[in-house]
Amino acid sequence: MAHPYRDVVIAGVHNTLQARHLEGHDSESITFEAAIGALADAGVQPAEVDAVVGAHAQELVLGLRLGPCTRLPWQLGIPIVLEAADLVASGRADVVLIAAGGASMYSDRSATAPWTRPANEFVVGYGLFTAAEFALMARRHMLMHGTTPEQMAGAAATIRNNGHVNPDAVYYGRGPFTPADILESRMVADPFHLLECAMTSEGGCAIVVTNAERAADLASPPVWILGGASDSYGPAYQIAPAWDLVGRSDVPAGYVGRTAARHAFSAAGLHPSDVDVAEFYDPFSFEIIRQLEAFGFCNDGDGGAFVEEGNIGPGGRLPVTTDGGTMSYSHAGINAQQLQRVIRAVEQLRGTCATNQVEDASVALASNGGSGALFTDVLLLGTDRP
Amino acid sequence: MLEPQPVGIPVPNPSPASQPYWEGCARGELLYQRCDGCATIALRPGTVCGHCLSRALSWVASSGNGSLYSWTVVWRPQRPSFTVPYAPAIVTLEEGFRMVSSIVGCEPEDLAADLPLAVEFHPASDEIFLPYFRPRA
Questions:
Q1: Share of chain A above pLDDT 70, in %
Q2: ipTM of the complex
Q3: Which of B15, B71, B86 sits opposite A121 (nearest CB)?
Q4: How many other β-carbons are positioned within 10 Å of the β-carbon of residue A173?
Q5: Which pTM value belongs to this model?
């Protein structure tokens, strides 16, 4: 059977300027900037777009005069890339525009960011927010496997140093950091120190997905979707984020994303050892260690040692989150920062990264989500047609 | 010392399914919802057993005794109405279910895996009482 995405190509990507605050922008206006940038990068005209996916899909259809047009106003990362791929693979669309942006969403700095504060009746009274939810997962791993604060800080230092050298990162030049520096920052939610947590910022990004025929005469080399899937254990921030929570399989919520990774690798006909670069989602330091184990890059319980041995830095066995991620590159709104892991993976495969380019990268993994949120999405991209 | 939060924090908004739970808390009882058929305990109040899909569910009183499964100590409050430090936690009750709560009555450094705990209730408003857990001897 032919690969479902044999005729699907990622043809355009774009990140707008990212900053702690983008003066004069709101989420919609920065999403428009991102969309225009991705169309230009792909070299396609607005008249060719026949589907738009993203939180502001309807506004884009109106604002760029794209109607009549398929619109999927969804606020997710990798799942909407897969949805766009399905639209193209099934022939329901020829050119799909995916766009996202976040700006002017976070003004009250006396509280944590508005999208991090759960309102559900069973958690609202306990002052939880994303850092605390993810800490409850990290603690279990520390208890089970002896994972140390130094190992987690090592993951944060690696990613923040990737952002330190990236001129496009919001925290460009804000380093370099040693693991000890990370552990000296103030405690937010034990075991997470400030520098082990994603920042908050503003920005937009967009992706253009099209078919192989249309992509043949476009400017950039095609990037192919080799496989992808999503795991969820239910709504985030409503029930106890217990490592051992299970549904009807034996994979615990602590390893959410393992089943998705197996699907993705199976579809691609690849193994974790084939991955050249892993653009992991990095909401908190521990999530890097967890994903290394969940996706099969090392054995269960060995993620901390994998980091400590220097495998995830530039030139290592598996360079991780090479743009600085949500800790240092940008963490805009709810879904731009998720799509940005995909965009960096595309840039790695094009060979166009100005910093931390992995030489001859041909297979890249991107991920979203995390254990504390009870979901993880996995996407495998490559330079070779599947 | 970890203490219950004063009145003024965000207050839970009960749903029709969870009303019995909050009524139990107000009279000092920790209730959980259990399937009459297969005895599976619900992850949250609902109308269908997640295991056998039975609609026959009953509210049962927990002993309120449990142990510490996981915890964090928060030093950057979610919003200013929360007093730091506070210790959100996952507690495993004797009956086998897990819930989110917060630990009180000890120092942050006393928190350890499997620490024996007992429930107690503190007001979050005139109507709503929140279950907290305190180390027990």
A1: 100
A2: 0.97
A3: B15
A4: 11
A5: 0.97
- Spatial contact of A127 and B77, defined as CB atoms under 8 Å apart: yes
Binary contact (B14, A132; C-beta < 8 A): no
* A7 three-class SS: coil
Quick one: DSSP state of residue B94?
T
E-strand spans in B4-56?
A: 31-35
The angle subtended at Cα B46 by Cα B42 and Cα B50, nearest 5°, is: 50
pLDDT tens digits for range A90-124: 999 999 999 999 998 777 777 777 777 778 999 99
User: Which of A327, A208, A341, A226 has the alpha carbon at shortest distance from A275?
Assistant: A226
Task: Give the DSSP H or E segment for A10.
Answer: strand A8-15
Looking at the complex, does the CB of residue B112 fall below 8 Å from at least one CB of chain A?
A: no
B13: chain A residues, CB-CB within 8 Å: 119, 121, 124
Q: Is the dihedral of CA B105, B117, B60, A233 positive or negative?
A: positive
> What angle do the packed helices A336-350 and A78-89 form, to 10 degrees?
60
Residues A336, A334: Cα–Cα separation, whole Å: 6
Contacts of A111 in chain B (CB under 8 A): 78-80
Q: Would you place residue A285 in the very low, low, confident or very high pLDDT band (cuts 50, 70, 90)?
A: very high
- DSSP class per residue in A244-308: T--SSSS--GGGTTHHHHHHHHHHHT--GGG-SEEE---SBHHHHHHHHHHTTSS-TT-HHHHHH
> Given this model, what pLDDT does residue A338 score?
95
Q: What is the pLDDT of residues A256-279, one digit of tens each?
A: 999 999 999 999 999 999 999 999
The SS3 of residue A237 is coil
- Interface check A127 vs B, CB under 8 A: yes
> How is residue A3 written in tokens?
């690969």
pLDDT of residue B128: 96
Quote the strand ranges of B1-137, DSSP E.
Answer: 31-35, 57-61, 65-71, 88-93, 98-102, 116-123, 129-135
Contact A126 B130 (CB under 8 A): yes
What percent of chain B has a predicted confidence (pLDDT) above 90?
A: 96
The type of residue at A337 is Q
In the numeric block, which tokens belong to residue A142? 């520390």
Give A293's pLDDT tier (boundaries 50, 70, 90): very high
